[in-house]
Amino acid sequence: MDQAVTPMPQGAVETLKSVTTATLTTILLKKGLRNVWMRGAAPCVGMEPGERIVGRAFTLRFVPAREDLATPASWSSPISTRAAIEAMPDGVIAVVDAMGVADAGIFGDILCSRMKKRGVAALVTDGALRDIDGVEKSGLAVWCSGVAAPPSVAGLTFVNWQEPIGCGGVAVFPNDVIVADSDGAVVIPAALLDEVLELAPEQERMEAWIMEEVAKGVPLPGLYPMNAETKARYEADMAKR
């Protein structure tokens, strides 16, 4: 639980904020990773139109509720969501494995307000939240599966933080990088971050150029994906800019 969070490389957050999650899934697919988009983690509250949030993953894990452990008294335990929040450093994205449980809210307005106060960048979960009006007022950006009034202990037991989890069917390790926008949340494995940072801006430039060609009426065959002739035309055009 004391695994340190690695600072992001200089400029990495700014670079990734300019790259859509759709582009990232394509880049990671080319690297052989097909399962990087978290199912059920949809934009919920706190995100401005067109906003994209980037940060290291700080993981939390729930398991199914067990009556002797999933009690209101557990909220005061050293192993609790409250203790996990106090361990979150500035700038991380909290990624919570709630097993897709939709009828218990893992966090509410008070916990989300505390996360915002600590500088947590966002919350991403395959579970539900409660006190949603208060969560929205907290200003914390949240990706989740929906809302539910009952507390977490009605359906889940909190067991740990900063260990490998499965969120929305995706393996997430502490210090992986999360990028979340209107299309959902994507995990970039920590070991691939440097490669993605190198490839992503060029992929965005290429797709922007293709959109310009589409706007001109250029047909898709040979354009998307590019054939050799189109790629040569693209490179020549980029050299002039």
Sum up the structure in keywords.
241 residues, alpha/beta, Glucose Oxidase, domain 1, 2 domains, eight-stranded mixed sheet, two-stranded parallel ribbon, 31% helix
Counted up, domains total 2
Which structural class do you get from the secondary structure elements? Answer: alpha/beta
**Which shape, going by the Cα principal axes?**
elongated
Largest sheet, in brief, is: 8 strands, mixed
Order of helices and strands: HHEEHEHEEHEEEEEEEHH
Number of helices: 7
Average pLDDT for all residues: 95
Strand proportion = 15-25%
Q: What's the number of extended β-strand segments?
A: 12
CATH topology tier name of the largest domain: Glucose Oxidase, domain 1
Q: Rg, please?
A: 20 Å
CATH architecture of the largest domain: 3-Layer(bba) Sandwich
Task: Give the CATH level 1 class of the largest domain.
Answer: Alpha Beta
Model description:
The protein is of the alpha/beta class and 241 residues long. The protein has 2 domains: 12-190, Ribonuclease E inhibitor RraA/RraA-like (Glucose Oxidase, domain 1, 3-Layer(bba) Sandwich); 196-240, no CATH class. Helix content is 31%, strand content 23%. The chain is built from 7 helices and 12 strands. The protein has helices spanning 12-17, 21-30, 81-86, 109-117, 132-138, 193-215, 228-240; strands at residues 42-45, 53-64, 93-97, 122-125, 128-129, 141-144, 146-147, 156-161, 165-167, 170-172, 177-181, 184-188. A hairpin with a 2-residue loop joins β9 (165-167) and β10. α4 (109-117) runs parallel beside α5.
Outline the fold blueprint.
Blueprint lengths: L11 H6 L3 H10 L11 E4 L7 E12 L16 H6 L6 E5 L11 H9 L4 E4 L2 E2 L2 H7 L2 E4 L1 E2 L8 E6 L3 E3 L2 E3 L4 E5 L2 E5 L4 H23 L12 H13 L1
Parallel strand pairs: 2-3, 3-4, 4-6, 5-7
Antiparallel strand pairs: 1-6, 2-8, 2-11, 9-10, 11-12
